[in-house]
Write a structure and sequence with these properties.
single chain, 369 residues, mainly alpha, two-stranded parallel ribbon
Length: 369
């Protein structure tokens, strides 16, 4: 729907009788943060230094000792992993303002994303303005919205090629980051009538930053190593492909499980542009957790598996998610809330089943004949 100003009208959530439950959970979450703040503060700040340092240290190692191609490949492999670690532990929390107490410092850390090749302005807009407000809503959730090659939303546009998406997409997914770096960011800036521009007018300075940081990224990742090291273009590009492949695969293990699967709902607003549920229930019905609580997921993966509480409390740092999730589980059991958590292999299987389910366009007339 379009407003009188020409901008799209935002879908509206209805009020629900379980909003008092959310307020109780909110109080409990804030109490958990206050209780653990002094113990966990060092971890937040330590990660803010550690992961950016490891990323750029890997690049320095590649430039210094990369005359040996295997050392060069190994450093770029490490950078592929560290892009994901920096995204989960640093950039994602910085964009929600949960690392530092000063807004300006958080905003400065978001530029790490630009230095690693992805445009931070457009991602912040997509993630905070759209995905967090309207998860799994076709036409509004820009994190789920990907290439036209994929039909993830059951109500999404249909093309004959989607008939085979469950067969070809698993082989295309390793190009996820490459698509983000060289196609998706530019489409968001220059394509008319895209989702981002429904509510946002992109400032001119952001166009300058887009080209400036993209140029800097490809210069220090590809052209500078070729100028400094006795490596062929093929060897340098192969290292870059290794980095992109590793980052893409690792990132998709994080990005696919919480929303895009057959166990989650994909709500649409009705004729009056209102959702069936209130905001609280919408988050629970469109988001799930991933089973598992270990040192690796907590320290390196930014507690990505505790995704429900992230949507309920996006302004809380990830180091507090395990305890808040335990409180959520207790509230869910007590008040019959639809909290869900699955093993990661189950969520990936359910994502595949979603692709298979959405490969055909539903025809109501054919069904009723």
């Amino acid at each position: 729907m379009i407003s009188a100003s020409g901008k799209a009208r935002k879908p509206q959530y209805v009020r629900g009788n379980n909003e008092d439950v959310f307020q109780q959970l909110r109080v409990e979450a804030h109490m958990i943060v206050e209780r653990l703040e002094s113990k966990r503060r060092w971890e937040i700040l330590f990660k803010a230094f550690l992961f950016p340092f490891l990323y750029f240290a890997s690049w320095v190692c590649a430039i210094t000792w990369g005359a040996n191609p295997w050392v060069f490949y190994g450093c770029y492999f490490a950078m592929g992993l560290l892009i994901v670690f920096n995204y989960l532990n640093i950039v994602h929390d910085a964009v929600h303002g949960t690392i530092f107490r000063k807004k300006e410092t958080n905003n400065a850390y978001v530029y790490l994303f630009d230095l690693m090749g992805a445009n931070s302005f457009i991602w912040k807009t997509r993630h905070v303005r759209y995905h967090h407000n309207y998860p799994n809503v076709n036409g509004w959730d820009t994190d789920i919205e990907q290439s036209d090659l994929a039909r993830v939303f059951p109500s999404g546009g249909y093309s004959r090629i989607h008939k085979y998406q469950h067969l070809y997409l698993p082989f295309i997914y390793p190009l996820f980051l490459f698509n983000w770096l060289v196609i998706r960011d530019f489409k968001d800036f220059f394509k008319k009538n895209n989702t981002v521009k429904k509510l946002v007018k992109i400032p001119r300075i952001e166009y300058v930053k887009l080209f400036l940081f993209k140029g800097l990224f490809f210069f220090y990742m590809i052209f500078l190593p070729k100028l400094i090291l006795p490596l062929s273009w093929g060897q340098v590009i192969l290292a870059f492909v290794i980095m992109v492949f590793i980052a893409s695969v690792f990132a998709l293990f994080v990005l696919l499980p919480p929303h895009a699967n057959t166990e989650s709902e994909f709500p649409l607003p009705d004729e009056s542009n209102k959702f069936k549920h209130n905001w609280f229930m919408h988050m629970l019905k469109t988001t799930n957790d991933v089973n598992g609580n270990n040192w690796f997921t907590r320290f390196f993966m930014g507690c990505f598996n505790y995704h429900v509480v992230h949507h309920l409390f996006p302004n809380v740092n990830h180091v507090f998610y395990p305890e808040i999730t335990q409180a959520l589980k207790e509230f869910a059991a007590k008040h019959d809330l639809p909290y869900r958590s699955f093993p990661i292999l189950t969520t990936l299987k359910n994502h595949y089943l979603l692709l298979k389910q959405n490969r055909m366009e539903f025809d109501i007339f054919e069904e009723t004949m």
